[in-house]
Every structure is written in C-alpha cells, then in structure tokens.
Design brief:
single chain; 126 residues; mainly alpha
Length: 126
C-alpha cells in the first residue's frame, strides 16, 4: 500500500501544480465555470488545493485516510462533472486515482508512514 500511496500523492501534486504553483488557477477556475459549477473561483480552487495539499499529506502518510477520502471525493465530483455516465470509458486515469484513494481509505497508509509511526509510538507507551 505504501508504494500506491506515494504514487497517488505525487500524481495529485503533479496534476495540480500548474494551477497552485505556476499561476494557472484563473484559467482552471474559468474552465470550471463553463461546466456550470456555482462559485467556480472558490470551488475550483478548493478542488485544486485538495489535490495539491492532500497529495502532499497522502504521499507522506500523514492524516492519510482523511486526505485520501478528500481526494477520492474530489475526483468523483470532477469525473461526474466532465464525463457523467461515460466516466469509466473516458476518464480512466482520474477514475484510477479515485479508486486508489478509496483503497487507501479502506486499507490505511501502510507501515512506512507518519501515521503508522505515531500509532506505534502511542500504543507502545500505553
């Protein structure tokens, strides 16, 4: 699970870095507005920040289940807005990332994670 967790986190950061780090947020949120999303500058930016910050936390394995669930929900919304019922035919990469997020939520971050380290420390000292 560790390799999949790190991969998902890095890919989420990669796919959101243009908007978050390199000034592409306005272009992205304008595009989100064309999909009929209300307050696209807020919700579009929120989605990209979930991908970027959530990706960083997931790749480190810190507060992993929470951020993996946010990523999975974010991708479900994105897929449904852009592809609808044809999602699994045309949105195979976002759907795969969404399913990875769900798998991480269900299985946890793995042994090589900050979450696992804290759990071992807490239960070792009790």
């Amino acid at each position: 699970m560790t390799i999949l967790r790190i991969w998902l986190g890095i890919m989420m950061m990669k796919h959101s870095s243009d908007a978050v780090l390199y000034g592409g947020m306005d272009d992205f949120t304008n595009w989100v507005g064309t999909l009929g999303v209300p307050i696209p500058h807020i919700l579009g930016a929120l989605g990209k920040y979930i991908e970027f910050i959530g990706g960083a936390f997931v790749s480190l394995g810190f507060i992993t289940r929470f951020f993996a669930s946010l990523i999975a929900a974010n991708l479900l919304i994105a897929i449904s807005l852009t592809e609808g019922l044809l999602a699994f035919f045309y949105a195979d990469i976002p759907a795969t990332y969404m399913l990875l997020g769900i798998a991480i939520v269900l299985n946890g971050p793995g042994k090589m994670s900050i979450d696992s380290y804290f759990v071992q420390k807490v239960f070792k000292n009790t």
